[in-house]
Design a protein that fits this description.
alpha+beta; Ribosomal Protein S5, domain 2; Alpha-Beta Plaits; 2 domains; 5-stranded antiparallel sheet; 9 strands
Length: 300
């Protein structure tokens, strides 16, 4: 017996880090993601490494929350097209995929809301105090407006036409906990400047939302560039990320910025069409960087 679940990867279009301090963020699922298959056999084929130990803890947590006593050892197969620790929501995609796999395996028929709640508990094992944005995007598969105040507020966003995106990987793994701590330290030492940047981020995202709804790609690109400058100011860029940004712009990107926690990981570049998307992708590859072509749509 076996059952499979899927979780979408994600990118942040606007306002990572600033979302922690009350600014809204806009995030979107991408076409790539993670499949988790659960099965029962007489042999334990699960790997024995640090990543598996965390994944195993997530699955055990789910079984505990759902009051399931698995009589046999569950074998877990993970297939992902996402780069881990790179701002693509790889851990959230695993959490969602494994929650769906458990729901399917034990015929629980969990709703998307229940999958999302369960996945948030899984994300806590990976990241300690996650925002909730990654698992929400991965679960529902739609671009969202996200605010974290007393309660998490989300709203589905309208995107008129598909956006052509290229994700460039710096080759450096990012660590969300460390990056968030770094920004907090910078904020405490530069409170007045941080508050100024925070207000700019709030203004920027309102314009970004409007530009996405109007299919104004040039404006979206300009705002991505502006958002990246804010992220540079708070210290989460690196020389390799800046190299990727420069390559993207030189190759015709309308805009490019860090996605995720930064301090390594990936950037996202917006192309005006498939031809420019291919050009940016090939440019990243020619400089020795991994890249992924994807699209953002209102519904995946």
């Amino acid at each position: 017996m076996s059952a499979t679940g899927f979780g979408f990867g994600k990118i942040i279009i606007f306002n990572e880090h600033f979302v922690v301090y009350g600014s809204p963020a806009i995030a979107s699922p991408i076409e790539q993601g993670c499949f988790v298959t659960l099965s029962t056999t007489n042999e334990n084929n699960n790997p024995n490494n640090d990543v598996w130990q965390i994944q195993k803890s997530v699955i055990q947590k789910y079984l505990q929350i759902l009051n399931i006593n698995a009589k046999n050892e569950l074998n877990v197969s993970v297939q992902t097209s996402l780069i881990p620790a790179a701002g693509m929501g790889a851990s959230a995609a695993f959490c969602v995929a494994s929650a769906r796999a458990i729901s399917n395996f034990f015929s629980l028929n969990l709703t998307d809301e229940q999958i999302n709640d369960l996945s948030f508990e899984g994300e806590k094992i990976f990241h300690g105090n996650p925002s909730g944005i990654d698992n929400t995007v991965s679960t529902f598969g739609k671009p969202i407006w996200f605010e974290k105040k007393e309660n998490i507020l989300t709203e589905n966003l309208k995107i008129k036409n598909a956006l052509h995106i290229v994700i460039g990987f710096s080759g450096e793994s990012g660590n969300t906990k460390d990056a968030v701590a770094k920004v907090a330290t910078w904020k405490n030492s530069n409170l007045r400047k941080f508050n100024f940047l925070l207000e700019r981020s709030k203004n920027l995202i309102l314009r970004g939302r409007e530009a996405l709804a109007d299919d104004d790609l040039e404006k979206v690109g300009r705002l991505m560039n502006e958002n990246h400058k804010l992220l540079v100011e708070i210290g989460v860029s690196t020389p390799k990320l800046e190299k990727l940004i420069a390559i993207a712009k030189d190759s015709g990107a309308l805009g490019a910025k860090i996605t995720g926690s930064g301090c390594g990981g990936c950037i996202v570049a917006l192309a005006s069409n498939e031809g420019d998307q291919d050009k940016i992708d090939q440019s990243f590859l020619s400089f020795g960087f991994k890249s992924i072509k994807t699209k953002i749509r209102e519904n995946l």
